[in-house]
Write a structure and sequence with these properties.
Strand content: 5-15%
Number of strands: 9
Largest sheet: 7 strands, mixed
Number of domains: 2
CATH class of the largest domain: Alpha Beta
CATH superfamily of the largest domain: Vaccinia Virus protein VP39
CATH topology of the largest domain: Rossmann fold
Strand order of the largest sheet: 3-2-1-4-5-7-6
Structural class: alpha/beta
């Protein structure tokens, strides 16, 4: 009779839709608990991974005695990044900057052997980043940290994210780039050039492939879109048609090179898919050929979500979930790397036990 291999138990904090969890599930981990306070996000997670998601604020959930009894092999998650991001005010007194402390509380209560924390690169140069590492080391974790570029791991997007890996089974380095390159053309394969959803109504969980949602831009916006060449941006608009360019852009001669940017087919997206990817004025979100912003389906493909992944919430809520997620393909590379290290450590431990018994 074949022996059943027990899967490592996983807890995901600030889980969102579950981009991190998906990559770990694909690598053989078993999710047993998650915390996500936004009800729509939690519903998406539950629909795809099970009803073990807790939709309370983490500061409330961790005081629950039943939650304190949960044991896991690994804790993953990304405390809200707005307090560290260059896109926000980056205020030192932002209360979201302190949520990592609750993350560490769960690391302690679950007695996990490994944790993975994800955030914006600024975390690693912040006082909080240093405090996270110091606290984890005091708990007995060996820490490795750094910034990973998603496009070096087969994600069709130049997304930079910081990762901190803590381990009590020996140091686990961040995974090396895989060498796999995926392009925007690869990501959009099979997606119709024209959006097919013109009146999105949420009547329950919706698969990714049903999110080819059209927008209704003004005639002025359409004229602007048409003037942006592949790889171009707002400066091309200003050069070709200053009369169509907002005065605030003309006065701002530096920065914002992604605004009104157009994607290119033959490479990863030279941008980060954020929560308002459907607004070209927010970044490089124009389709490589069509004079329109990318759709939810296309953004989810750039984030490497599968077409059958199910989403809950309004179209704005779904956009936030897509933009905030860790690309599952990047998560999977990290998960497989950690699983390999866990397997090696277990093998070494078994060998040592056998040798010890032989000596006796």
């Amino acid at each position: 009779m074949a022996k059943t291999i027990e899967k490592p138990k996983l807890v995901d904090l600030f889980s969102g839709a579950g981009g991190l969890t998906l990559g770990f599930v694909q690598a053989g981990f078993e999710p047993i608990y998650a915390i996500e306070h936004d009800s729509a996000f939690a519903q998406t997670y539950a629909t795809n991974f099970g009803c073990h998601v807790d939709s309370r604020p983490i500061e409330e959930a961790i005081n629950d005695k039943d939650v304190q009894k949960i044991r896991a092999d690994i804790v993953i998650g990304g405390p809200p990044c707005q307090g560290f991001s260059n896109l926000g005010p980056n205020r030192a007194d932002d209360p979201r900057r302190a949520l990592w402390q609750y993350y560490i509380d769960v690391v302690k209560s679950t007695r996990c052997k490994v944790f993975v924390m994800e955030n914006v690169p600024n975390l690693l140069t912040s006082e909080e980043g240093a405090e996270i590492i110091r606290t984890a080391e005091e708990l007995g974790f060996e820490i490795r940290s750094g910034v990973l570029l998603a496009s070096q791991y087969g994600v069709p997007q130049n997304r930079k994210r910081a990762f901190i890996i803590g381990s009590k089974i020996g140091a686990i380095e961040l995974p090396e780039p895989t060498g796999e390159v995926s392009t925007v053309r690869d990501a959009f394969k099979g997606i119709p050039a024209k959006p097919t959803v013109h009146n999105f109504v949420q009547n329950g969980p919706v698969p990714t492939e049903k999110l080819h949602i059209a927008r209704n831009p003004t005639e002025l916006s359409k004229k602007r879109y048409a003037l942006i060449p592949p790889g171009g941006n707002r400066f091309d608009l200003q050069r070709l048609a200053p009369e169509l360019t907002p005065q605030c852009w003309i006065k701002k001669t530096q920065g914002g090179t992604d605004l009104y940017g157009r994607l290119e087919w033959n490479g990863p997206a030279r941008c980060t898919i954020r929560t308002e990817f459907y607004k070209p004025e927010k970044g490089r979100y124009l389709h490589p050929k069509e004079d329109r912003p990318i759709t939810h389906w296309e953004a989810a493909r750039l984030q490497t979500f599968p077409d059958d992944f199910l989403w809950c919430g309004s179209k704005i809520k779904i956009a936030i979930q897509i933009g905030n997620a860790v690309p599952p393909k990047l998560s999977n590379c990290i998960a497989k790397h950690i699983a390999k290290n866990i397997s090696i450590k277990k093998t070494v431990k078994r060998k040592r036990v056998r040798v010890a018994k032989a000596k006796v």
